[in-house]
Design a protein that fits this description.
By secondary structure, this protein is mainly alpha-helical. The chain starts with 14 loop residues before the first helix and ends with a helix. It is rod-shaped, with a radius of gyration of 35 Å. Keywords: Membrane, Transmembrane, Transmembrane helix.
Length: 82
């Protein structure tokens, strides 16, 4: 039986490894920066949608109040005619 091989490490720096590491770091930083921009944009869009929803809700409430008044008028005139 032969003896198992031992791990060996070389004490040299390869230019390709350095370039790859720097590229990965730069790519990660750019990705996180872009992610932050998208989060901010989505947050602004969400606030805008909330504002539109509130305006629509107010408009619908006004319209329902108008319909209620018309129904009250119709019911009142039907009761008077009987």
């Amino acid at each position: 039986m032969s003896q198992p091989e031992h791990w060996q490490m070389k004490k040299e720096l390869n230019l390709a490894h350095i370039i790859t590491t720097v590229t990965l770091l730069v790519s990660g930083i750019l990705y996180l920066g872009d992610l932050d921009k998208r989060i901010t944009t989505n947050s602004q869009a969400l606030n805008h949608l909330k504002q539109i929803r509130n305006e629509d809700q107010k408009r619908i409430e006004k319209r329902l109040d108008s319909i209620d008044k018309k129904l009250d008028t119709l019911l009142g005139s039907n009761l008077r005619s009987e």
